[in-house]
Design brief:
Blueprint: H1 4-9, H2 20-33, E1 36-37, H3 39-42, H4 51-60, H5 67-81, E2 84-92, H6 94-97, E3 105-111, E4 115-118, E5 130-131, E6 135-139, E7 142-148, E8 154-157, E9 166-169, H7 176-188, H8 193-196, E10 199-204, E11 207-212, E12 215-220, E13 223-228, H9 232-243, H10 254-265
Helix pairs in contact: 4-5
Length: 267
């Protein structure tokens, strides 16, 4: 995997060393330049766990992706630099959904002076590496908490304004068969929120912007502001100008997006 185009994609011009400062800077740069999005799922295009496929889409094509792509690519880049990286099987909202959530999230552990939890694939999740020890961690105006559970799992409690309140994981090598099964389910099942909703999220200097269907949310230290997207043209323009996504076929999603909005909120 050629890393130079990736670093140009995320605007990184620093010195690359396998240390915590570099890891923190790379994570922030990735989140600021590559959007979390599931538009390929909406367009019924197959998404894989292969980091090379993620590279072609997120770097070469200038798109974004979801956790399997975002963390898959980021982990491969970190390994190429010289970081010791282990992929982990995650479970978003396992607290509410139980075992059925296992494998719905791919995350990373990076070994430095101690293990660090690294995640660029949750959308509005942590912006920096988090030491793998219990405690609260503040990233800008947002606060996260890491808890060791009685059953041996870890739980990352997301910021109180985030979409997903938590995810669980075990500090052991990923179960790729489980991840593959859940990846397939999440992009094909009518019950999957990724099939039901078009989602885009990007970290800005002092905000996190998220477009879920027709609703554009801007989360800042002062609170959350919502705006309703009024037309297919405005939707495409928001994708391009705010998220950097220029995908002509996304215009075809507008009728489905409107139907889903009406289901959730009424006409």
């Amino acid at each position: 995997m050629e890393t130079d185009p990736y670093f140009r994609r995320i605007g990184f011009v620093g010195i690359l060393t396998a240390d915590l400062a570099t890891l923190r800077e790379l994570q922030r740069a990735h989140l600021a330049h590559i959007p979390y999005e599931n538009l390929d799922v909406q367009l019924q295009r197959t998404v894989t766990l292969d980091p090379q496929d993620a590279y072609a889409k997120l770097v070469s094509a200038g798109r974004g992706g979801w956790c399997y792509e975002m963390n898959g690519l980021f982990g491969a880049v970190l390994q190429a630099i010289g970081f010791r990286v282990m992929s982990l099987t995650g479970a978003v909202m396992r607290a509410e959904r139980g075992a059925s959530a296992i494998g719905n999230h791919l995350i990373l552990a990076v070994e430095l002076d101690e293990p660090y939890l690294v995640d660029v694939g949750l959308g509005d999740g942590p912006a920096e590496p988090i030491p793998l020890r219990e405690g609260s961690y503040r990233h800008g105006w947002r606060t996260f908490r890491l808890e060791r559970l009685a059953d041996g799992w870890w739980r990352l409690h997301n910021d109180k304004h985030a979409f997903a309140p938590s995810f669980d994981f075990q500090h052991q090598p990923a179960d790729w068969a489980v991840l593959q099964q859940r990846c397939q389910w999440q992009q094909t099942s009518p019950e999957s929120r990724f099939v039901q909703n078009a989602i885009c999220v990007l970290h800005k200097p002092n905000a996190i912007v998220a477009m879920v269907g027709r609703v554009l949310k801007t989360n800042t230290e002062q609170g959350t502001a919502d705006e309703i997207i009024m037309s297919a043209e405005a939707y495409a323009d928001t994708l391009a100008t705010l998220f950097g996504i220029r995908e002509p076929e996304c215009a075809n999603l507008w009728p489905k997006i409107c139907r889903r909005h009406d289901e959730l909120f009424g006409r």
